[in-house]
């Protein structure tokens, strides 16, 4: 059932019950069970994300900001605004409800595997022919993941200096993509990076004088940042040699995961690599990948 038809059904039930439960004491703004279910349906329809009941407080807090920004006084009014199909507000809504938790070299074993196994394998196979390397960071958030990939590529294999190397960096949230495009980060975001890497790949930002750092041009030149909803049609055709999609599919239900993994397999090169997040698995999701290590897969067919 589409979100707009579900919305009408839920609205009728809401009117019949008259129920409007307070989400926390002292708040004048209320969110009924029916409205929350309707919001979850809209999220699923727009983003593919399956929001559980435990996310009610989080959704309530984040959408309060959108109500203030749009001048709507109730969740019902705001839902009706979304139903009218305003593209700008739907984007703002999607930005508000998605979570962006990331850091440089998060889950370090993935980058070690990239340096020690994936890159040498690709160089051995393509070194005398195409010398083309394509990596996709799907759900790149504020850019720490793809920049970590780029640093790994630059440091792990000098032979790649003469290769055609490109990283596609996509995310649903247009706000976080802006951070990745600028490549400017606060000091606390890079405090765990070894000093040698900081000196080599970061410079003091000329735009701010508060200690922020900026990624080197050599890394930024590898990147293309684009907004993309994984549930929509993909404008790129591939093939990609490696796809990082970490801590993204955990928010999707099993049917959505199966569709997404099949699409990933289709756009990966033969024997291409897929890297998931620490709590994600392809068990009972896809048989098109072989498990190589901790959440590291290789396309098998």
Percentage of residues in strands: 15-25%
- Measured between the Cα atoms of the first and last residue, the distance is 33 Å
Number of discrete helical segments: 11
Shape, per Cα inertia axes: globular
Question: Low-confidence segments, ≥5 residues, pLDDT <50?
Answer: 1-27
CATH topology of the largest domain: Rossmann fold
* Topology order in helix (H) and strand (E) letters: HHHHHHEHEHEHEEHEEHEEE
Q: Helicity, in percent?
A: 40-55%
The value of Rg in angstroms is 22 Å
Please report the total strand number as a whole number.
Answer: 10
The secondary-structure class comes to alpha/beta
Strand order of the largest sheet: 6-2-1-7-8-10-9
The CATH superfamily of the largest domain bears the name Vaccinia Virus protein VP39
Report the biggest beta sheet as strand number plus sense, adding barrel if it closes: 7 strands, mixed
The CATH architecture name of the largest domain reads 3-Layer(aba) Sandwich
- Oligomeric state: single chain
How many structural units, i.e. domains?
2
Structure description:
- The chain has 301 residues and is an alpha/beta fold.
- The chain folds into 2 domains: 3-97, Chemotaxis Receptor Methyltransferase Cher, domain 1, CATH 1.10.155; 108-299, Rossmann fold, CATH 3.40.50.
- Helices cover 44% and strands 17% of the residues.
- The protein contains 11 helices and 10 strands.
- The chain has helices at residues 3-17, 33-47, 56-70, 75-83, 87-97, 108-126, 144-156, 174-182, 195-201, 217-220, 254-267; strands at 132-138, 164-171, 184-185, 202-204, 213-215, 223-227, 240-245, 268-276, 289-293, 296-299.
- The strands form 2 sheets. The chain has a 7-stranded mixed β-sheet with strand order 6-2-1-7-8-10-9. Strands 3-5-4 form a 3-stranded antiparallel β-sheet.
- Helix 11 links the parallel strand 7 (240-245) and strand 8 (268-276).
- Helix 1 runs antiparallel to helix 2, helix 3 packs antiparallel against helix 5 and helix 6 crosses helix 7 (144-156).
- It is globular, with a radius of gyration of 22 Å.
- It starts with a helix and ends with a strand.
- 33% of the residues are buried.
């Amino acid at each position: 059932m589409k979100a707009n038809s579900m919305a009408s059904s839920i609205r009728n039930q809401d009117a019949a019950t008259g129920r409007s439960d307070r989400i926390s004491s002292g708040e004048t703004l209320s969110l009924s069970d029916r409205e929350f279910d309707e919001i979850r349906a809209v999220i699923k329809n727009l983003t593919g994300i399956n929001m559980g009941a435990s996310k009610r407080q989080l959704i309530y807090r984040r959408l309060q900001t959108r109500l203030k920004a749009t001048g709507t006084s109730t969740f019902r009014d705001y839902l009706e605004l979304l139903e009218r199909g305003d593209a700008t507000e739907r984007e703002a809504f999607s930005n508000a409800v998605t979570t962006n938790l990331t850091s440089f070299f998060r889950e370090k074993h993935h980058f070690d595997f990239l340096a020690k196994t994936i890159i040498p394998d690709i160089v051995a196979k393509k070194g005398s022919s195409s010398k083309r390397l394509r990596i996709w960071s799907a759900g790149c958030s504020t850019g720490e993941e793809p920049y970590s990939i780029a640093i790994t590529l630059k440091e792990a294999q000098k032979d790649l200096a003469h290769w055609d190397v490109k990283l596609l960096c996509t995310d649903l949230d247009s706000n976080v993509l802006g951070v990745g495009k600028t490549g400017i980060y606060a000091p606390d975001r890079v405090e765990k990076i070894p000093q040698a890497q900081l000196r080599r790949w970061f410079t003091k930002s000329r735009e701010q004088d508060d200690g922020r750092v900026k990624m080197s041009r050599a890394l930024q030149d590898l990147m293309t940042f684009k907004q993309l909803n994984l549930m929509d049609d993909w404008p790129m055709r591939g093939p990609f040699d490696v796809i990082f999609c970490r801590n993204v599919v955990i928010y999707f239900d099993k049917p959505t995961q199966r569709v997404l993994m099949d699409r990933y397999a289709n756009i990966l090169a033969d024997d291409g690599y897929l890297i998931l997040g620490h709590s994600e698995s392809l068990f009972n999701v896809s048989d098109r990948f072989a498990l190589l290590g901790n959440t590291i897969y290789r396309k098998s067919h």
